[in-house]
Amino acid sequence: MKGHSRSTSGYVMKSTSFLLYLLLLLTSLWTTSAVADERKVIPSIAFKQEYSDNLFFSAQSRQSDFISTISPGLELMNNTDRLTAGMKMHLDSSYYQDHQNLDSVDQDISGNLGYAVSSRANVFTSGGYRRDSRVDSQFTQTGLVLSDVPRELYNYQLGGDYALSEVMGVKLAYTYNSEYYDSSQYAAYQSNAISMELNRDLSELLSSTVGRIRLGAMDYNNDGTYGLKNGSQTKNYTGTVGAERRLDERFSYFADIGLRYTESTLDTYRLVPSGIPSSYLVVPYEAQSNGTGITGQTGVTYQGELNSAQLSLAHEVAPASGSNGTVERTTLQCSAGRKLNETSQIALSAGYAMNKSTQDGSTTNTIDQQSYWLQPKLVYDLTQQWAVETSYSYALVHDKEVDTDSYRNLVMLRLVYQYKMFE
């Protein structure tokens, strides 16, 4: 199997070129569009102060610190009856009181375009680039703790949908993701995915219900670590059937359930007899495995005038950032919020994630972890432009491979300024 080293600059250049083209196109649309139903420019700046009692989620050596972050940002939006276009970008300049070697300037840029070709057909594309070095930057999405080594993430998507009839439609999409670390100790990866969805209005049988069938094919490639030939490749094929139903203007729910088939190949090494008594040779070896399982997702959403809530459960095969291989991931997430008055609101989010390597016994760093998190939050609008936000976050990671628990408490205070400009 061929590796994908950091020298695969072709992927990076293509992603970067795509993003630059997207940003230029958005700027052009902003300045030349004749009539816009919705057009916004929102510059912002945020000042955040955090205290963490376990910076690296260590089970043995807990290190605490204060973190100060300044985040200037800009959001653009330009929507017409046929076009939707948007872009967001911000910088995060973080400064640590004691661990000054962790000081960093991270950035996040993303954009999206959608265009209605006709009354039946739509096309869409999106792209993003992010550079970050926080160990918890993906924790509430994946349940995994990352390294403090800076990493670059690229993504883009291209697709479209077409109405086959008044009650049936089809949607196609291609998605690319990649992640690179500034250290050979962590494995970079690239992924390509193709998906197709066939949906049909089932209102004749059940009011306000849309049924759907989804097929997907994903390919994940890991580079390996330390320049060794220890990369991996995983192919994952999925098929699900499901439906989404809206009971009223406030309450809706959805469910998709199906099967997945996974093929994995790992570049590793093994010992073979050399022909000389009591001596062996180390030779490259491709370890192959395959398996089947259940995949799917389900959730409910409530959106009222004062209260909102969301609960979702998902099970899938996904890449493990920084590690060589993929994981079978189960996530349960919930959030709830209540608007207290015109200027303040409270929110609570919680989650659980279970990550287990799909190549058990073959990878150099087998993953078998359970993660939990809880975060209450309070937001208060001081004026139309200024807002203050405070939160407390508790996180726990149970590593079943080494039977250890690591937990972290994080307290945050954030001051945000936004100036909304409309045309």
Walkthrough of the structure:
The protein is mainly beta and 423 residues long. It has one domain (9-422): Porin (Beta Barrel). It has 2 helices and 19 strands. It has helices at residues 9-32, 139-142, and strands at residues 38-52, 65-79, 83-96, 104-116, 121-132, 151-163, 168-181, 189-201, 209-222, 232-246, 251-273, 280-303, 307-319, 326-339, 344-357, 368-381, 386-399, 404-418, 421-422. It has an 18-stranded antiparallel barrel. The radius of gyration is 24 Å and the shape is globular. It starts with 8 loop residues before the first helix and ends with a strand. Residues 1-15 have low confidence and may be disordered.
Keywords:
disordered N terminus, 423 residues, Porin, single chain
Please give the largest β-sheet. Answer: 18 strands, antiparallel, barrel
- The proportion of strand residues reads over 45%
Apparent shape: globular
- CATH topology heading: Porin
SSE order:
HEEEEEHEEEEEEEEEEEEEE
* Helix content class: under 10%
In the CATH hierarchy, what is the class? Mainly Beta
Structural class estimated from helices and strands: mainly beta
Low-confidence stretches: 1-15
Tally of contiguous helical segments: 2
How many domains make up the coordinates? Answer: 1
Mean pLDDT: 87
Structure, briefly:
By secondary structure, this protein is mainly beta. It contains 2 helices and 19 strands. The chain has a single domain (9-422), classed as Beta Barrel (Porin).
